[in-house]
Specification:
397 residues; alpha/beta; 5-stranded mixed β-sheet
Length: 397
């Protein structure tokens, strides 16, 4: 594999947890470069019998890329070629896949028609970047692809229509490892990228995905949503809270951002359902629950236990606990687990309401895999009732 064709000398490095990590380039950049190369070999005389080995591409971020071209196929009136995705040091399931572009001459006025083929998803629900029925090629990659092909078309003075089809053969199987099925994108992955560059471990990408999911529920008419930070919360939701899961969003660690989005989309209510290990941090107003930003789980429990009347010896025992479940056992043995959790839930409710700016009703359910339900805020039962009513109405309609 001639990977040395790919050069991006100006690509940025980012620092994550004190590690220097290399950036990569998006599926959008790959698609635009492949479309450019295919256009050159189809329309420019100097490449009629000579393969394009690499193309220059300027990304929206202003970083120049030189990307290698592979798997060239020529046919009557069309050319297909591919660019290999390089995600840099980002843990991206699309790293190393080939993104193909076919450019073909078709009859019609001089314009560029863009569509997706095998492995590129198709939009089936409202609220996404593209309307229902379109290939899941987002706005920025669309502009990049069309701009590159149009530039070659004008250079060649070709006066008829060109059709560009983007294919990602691996996209069909990779789609199951992405959020796409939940978002209503079927048949493959999305062609993405607002900057053309992949930043390793990008939190922005996760936050953007949460916003898309909330926007979709909003467009579907939902005014109340239920949010789980992770897989434990999702499992609890399915097992213990039937009848509200249709309006579900995963927030990962971004509790505060998710609340802000609820306010942004003028939701009436939001219910968080999560494991004590993450949710206890909310009692201290920690709105990004990733441990790299803040931990303090045991310290928060110690503070609540102190208020609940814990002895000095008990507080010392709590301090030696490594996990929240271990601490819960200590509190249960001392007979103050319920009172401690009541205090925790009061604090969680205070901080959630403060972050919601009184703009929507908000609540939380906290559980443990070992202890089950540990606590709920004063608004929880009312929110569950609203969510169930909303789900019943949705299914009737």
């Amino acid at each position: 594999m001639e990977k040395d064709h790919n050069k991006a000398e100006d690509l940025d490095y980012v620092y994550v947890n004190n590690k220097k990590l290399r950036c990569g380039y998006t599926t959008g950049s790959c698609a635009a470069a492949a479309a450019k190369a295919a256009s050159m070999m189809l329309l420019l005389e100097q490449y009629q019998y000579e393969d394009v080995k690499s193309v220059q591409l300027m990304t929206p971020k202003g970083i120049a890329l030189s990307l290698g071209i592979y798997h060239i196929e020529r046919d009557e009136g069309k050319v297909t070629c591919a660019v290999q995705k390089d995600s840099g040091d980002d843990a991206d399931v699309t790293n190393g896949i080939f993104v193909y572009a076919t450019v073909e001459k078709v009859s019609g006025k001089p314009e560029i028609e863009l569509d997706g083929g095998i492995g590129v998803g198709r939009v089936t629900k409202p609220g996404l970047d593209q309307p229902i029925g379109n290939a899941a090629i987002n706005s920025t990659p669309r502009k990049m692809i069309i701009s590159e092909v149009e530039e070659i078309r004008e250079e060649s003075e070709y006066q008829n229509k060109l059709k560009v089809t983007i294919c990602i053969p691996k996209g069909v199987e990779l789609a199951e490892k992405t959020f796409n099925p939940r978002l209503g994108i079927v048949g493959g992955i999305s062609v993405l990228g607002t900057s053309g560059i992949v930043e390793p471990m990008s939190e922005k990408a996760l936050v953007d995905t949460i916003r898309v999911e909330i926007n979709m529920l909003h467009k579907a008419g939902d005014e109340y949503i239920v949010v789980t930070p992770g897989n434990y919360g999702e499992q609890y939701l399915k097992g213990e809270l039937k009848g509200i899961g249709d309006s579900h969003v995963k927030s990962s660690n971004f509790i505060g951002d998710t609340i802000d989005m609820g306010f942004e989309f003028k939701l009436k209510g939001m219910l968080f359902v999560g494991h004590i290990g993450k949710m206890v941090k909310l009692a201290a107003g920690i709105m990004n629950t990733h441990s790299k930003y803040a931990d303090g789980r045991i310290e928060i429990l110690i503070n609540a236990a102190l208020t609940a009347g814990a002895s000095l010896e008990l507080l010392k025992n709590l301090q030696d606990c490594v996990t929240t479940d271990e601490a819960l056992h200590v509190l249960e043995d001392a007979g103050i687990l319920t009172e401690t959790m009541n205090i925790i839930m009061e604090k969680i409710e205070f901080h959630l309401k403060r972050r919601a700016y009184d703009g929507m009703e908000i609540g939380a359910i906290v559980f443990s895999n070992q202890f089950g339900l540990l606590g709920k805020t004063s608004t929880t039962d009312r929110l569950i009732k609203q969510l169930r009513t909303q789900q019943e109405c949705r299914r009737r309609n």
